[in-house]
């Protein structure tokens, strides 16, 4: 069982985090982008994966370090705006992005006016960090125009893995493969 501490200014694991944890199948070397509290990376590191956890927030980085130590797992932890400080390639890249279509809100959930401001920038470069045959896991919300986003990012094959529905939205977990 993972034992985590939380901070008010760092994304606390919610349904989207657990949707990822319960459905992903990862390679050995993993990049956990937007790691937040570190729950996904710590869970995977405790299973023997080599994990690099990345977050733009300095407070999140400190919390990930604390939680990794608390759970006695080793991970590489990098403060970075998406891939700006990331080097190397990975078998699996996981991203639970800020996907809500709102602006001028917390970086934890604000995806810009269309919900894809951060996710679009992520996909512009994610393929460069994948090993051949690697995969990406990504959460999207039906409060956005997912179909248009998928069509715009036709470099990737989007495979819907699972979804969760709530009163106000549904979130979908996609596995992405680079089209050859």
What would you say this structure looks like, in words?
With 180 residues, this protein is α/β, with parallel strands linked by helices. The protein has a single domain, classed as Rossmann fold, CATH 3.40.50. It has helices spanning 15-23, 39-46, 58-70, 117-126, 146-152, and strands spanning 29-33, 50-55, 76-79, 90-95, 130-141, 156-165, 170-178. It has a seven-stranded mixed beta sheet with strand order 3-2-1-4-5-7-6. The longest helix has 13 residues, at 58-70. The termini are far apart. The model has no long low-confidence stretch (mean pLDDT 92).
Defining traits:
180 residues; alpha/beta; Rossmann fold; 7 strands
Question: Brief overview, please?
Answer:
With 180 residues, the chain is α/β, with parallel strands linked by helices. It is 26% helix and 29% strand.
How is the topology of this model organized?
Blueprint: H1 15-23, E1 29-33, H2 39-46, E2 50-55, H3 58-70, E3 76-79, E4 90-95, H4 117-126, E5 130-141, H5 146-152, E6 156-165, E7 170-178
Parallel strand pairs: 1-2, 1-4, 2-3, 4-5
Antiparallel strand pairs: 5-7, 6-7
């Amino acid at each position: 069982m993972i034992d985590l501490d939380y901070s008010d200014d760092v994304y606390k694991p919610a349904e989207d985090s657990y949707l990822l944890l319960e459905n992903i199948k990862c390679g050995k070397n993993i990049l956990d982008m937007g790691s937040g509290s570190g729950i996904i990376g710590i869970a995977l590191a405790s299973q023997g994966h080599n994990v690099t956890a990345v977050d733009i927030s300095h407070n999140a980085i400190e919390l990930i370090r604390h939680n990794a130590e608390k759970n006695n797992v080793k991970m590489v932890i990098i403060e970075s705006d998406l891939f700006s400080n990331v080097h190397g390639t990975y078998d699996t890249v996981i991203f639970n992005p800020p996907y809500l279509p709102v602006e001028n809100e917390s970086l934890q959930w604000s995806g810009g006016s269309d919900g894809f401001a951060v996710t679009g920038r992520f996909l512009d470069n994610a393929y460069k960090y994948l090993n051949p045959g690697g995969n990406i896991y990504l959460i999207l919300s039906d409060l956005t125009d997912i179909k248009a986003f998928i069509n715009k990012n036709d470099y990737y094959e989007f495979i819907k893995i699972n979804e969760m529905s709530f009163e106000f939205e549904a979130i979908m977990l996609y596995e992405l493969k680079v089209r050859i």
